[in-house]
């Protein structure tokens, strides 16, 4: 048996556990991201309704200013009419007053409509803001639980990484570097057993000459020629 086999198996077991912990951490991150996305959608609704509310309020105020100016002009026309003695000029001025009255009536009608729209928009902003507050409150307990789980997992990860590095430091450097390189490129485990002179990762037969050489050298640990996995022998073929 290769002298570093037990140590490397321990390192691989640590890596397996680290992968499980990392997957759990990713699940928590995904859950938090889902909660954040839900809040972001409501915040986007608030921004949109606020923008529409501000626009409606601006149009209402501008029209109100215009109506007030129109009323002042109309008052001045009526004042002038009291002093006009020329019938033709009086008729023209009365016509202007009548036209202006129609314009003012339409603008006042528009103002009522826009004012109602502005009120509705303001109500929508308030309603959406309340919905956001309610959603944040509903999420609070879940977020607290996720944060607690995340803190525990982070502590476990830190401890496991430290233990893993301590174990890895005791493995032959060349073998450790080879293991780490393969671990970065493989989706399956790097260190796999060979059963009946067959790689259990890719099921490729290992030539008896290689087995005999490794056995003679007392180092039953080598790389699979087909898949590259580091193989170790749990039994020596006869």
Characterization of the model:
It is a single chain. It is rod-shaped and about 135 Å long. It has 2 domains: 10-171, Helix Hairpins; 177-233, no CATH class. Helices cover 77% and strands 6% of the residues. By secondary structure, the protein is mainly alpha-helical.
Summarize the structure in short.
This protein is mainly alpha-helical.
- Structural class estimated from helices and strands: mainly alpha
Taken in chain order, the helices and strands follow as HHHEEHEE
Side by side, the strands of the main sheet go 2-1-4-3
Helical segment count: 4
Hey, roughly how much beta strand do the residues contain? 5-15%
Coarse morphology: rod-shaped
Gyration radius, rounded: 41 Å
CATH topology grouping of the largest domain = Helix Hairpins
Summarize the amount of helix as a percent range. over 70%
Number of domains: 2
Oligomer: single chain
The overall strand count is: 4
**What is the first-to-last residue Cα distance?**
16 Å
Low-confidence stretches: none
The assigned CATH architecture of the largest domain is: Orthogonal Bundle
Name of the level-1 CATH class of the largest domain: Mainly Alpha
Q: Average pLDDT, to the nearest integer?
A: 89
Largest sheet: 4 strands, mixed
């Amino acid at each position: 048996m290769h002298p570093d086999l037990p140590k490397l198996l321990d390192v691989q077991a640590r890596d397996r556990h680290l992968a499980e912990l990392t997957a759990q951490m990713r699940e928590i991150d995904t859950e938090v991201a889902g909660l954040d996305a839900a809040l972001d959608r409501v915040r986007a609704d608030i921004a949109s309704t606020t923008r529409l509310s501000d626009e409606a309020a601006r149009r209402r105020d501008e029209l109100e200013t215009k109506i007030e100016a129109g009323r002042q002009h109309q008052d001045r026309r009526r004042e002038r009419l009291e002093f006009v003695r020329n019938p033709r000029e009086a008729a023209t001025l009365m016509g202007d007053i009548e036209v202006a009255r129609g314009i003012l009536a339409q603008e006042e009608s528009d103002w009522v409509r826009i004012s109602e729209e502005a009120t509705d928009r303001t109500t929508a902003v308030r309603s959406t803001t309340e919905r956001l507050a309610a959603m944040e409150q509903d999420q609070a307990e879940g977020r607290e639980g996720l944060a607690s789980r995340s803190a525990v997992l982070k502590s476990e990860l830190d401890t496991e990484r430290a233990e893993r590095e301590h174990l890895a430091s005791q493995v032959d450097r060349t073998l450790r570097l080879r293991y780490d390189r393969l671990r970065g490129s493989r989706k399956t485990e790097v260190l796999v057993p060979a059963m009946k002179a067959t790689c259990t990762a890719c099921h490729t037969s290992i030539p008896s000459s290689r087995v005999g050489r490794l056995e003679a050298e007392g180092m039953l640990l080598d790389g699979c020629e087909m898949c590259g996995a580091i193989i170790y022998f749990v039994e020596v073929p006869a």
